[in-house]
Design brief:
With about 160 residues, the chain is an alpha+beta fold. It has two domains: about 70 residues, no CATH class; about 70 residues, Beta Barrel (OB fold (Dihydrolipoamide Acetyltransferase, E2P)). It contains one helix and eleven strands; from the N terminus they run αβββββββββββ. The two termini are about 30 Å apart.
Length: about 160
């Protein structure tokens, strides 16, 4: 997806949240995902005690100053000392076969030579092993996901 489409998608998400704030008379709405964080505040005059009003309720006065979208920086990258990067293009698998237990889990311990995942490339299954002992602090792939050369797969600390 290109940046223009991503920006348009973000604007659509913001508009959806603004609509939720307006429709439900919320004073504040905060949402956080893997890729961004958004916080919307409604500038309505808040009274000290809630009072029910009859008739039209004022709509939220939301300006660009009240909307903050923060792109979350990647905590880890493929240059991290404990990074395990993909040596090839292929499909990543987290277990030896479907339905079996995964090789690794977040915060699990591994030793040098332990299998971390399997990459299928051209119908050949290639085991990716740990280059050092430690704890898995980041998993950068999903089971069955296509991966690229040099993509960050796992971080061991």
């Amino acid at each position: 997806m290109n940046k223009k489409n991503s920006h348009k998608e973000n604007l659509n998400i913001v508009q959806d949240f603004v609509d939720i704030v307006n429709k439900n008379d919320l004073s504040e709405l905060e949402y956080e995902s893997e890729h961004f964080k958004i916080k919307i505040k409604n500038n309505m005059n808040n009274s000290p005690s809630p009072q029910k009003t009859i008739g039209k309720t004022p709509k939220a006065n939301i300006s660009e100053n009240n909307i903050k979208i923060e792109e979350k920086p990647e905590k880890f990258n493929n240059k991290h000392p404990g990074a395990v990067n993909s040596p090839m293009v292929g499909t990543a698998y987290s277990s030896p076969e479907p339905g079996k237990e995964t090789f690794i889990k977040l915060n699990s311990s591994v030793s040098i030579g332990d299998t971390l995942l399997i990459i299928e490339a051209m119908k050949v299954m290639n085991s990716i092993t740990a280059h050092k002992s430690g704890k898995i602090v980041h998993i950068g792939f999903e089971d069955g996901q296509p991966i690229e050369f040099n993509q960050l797969l796992v971080v061991i600390e």
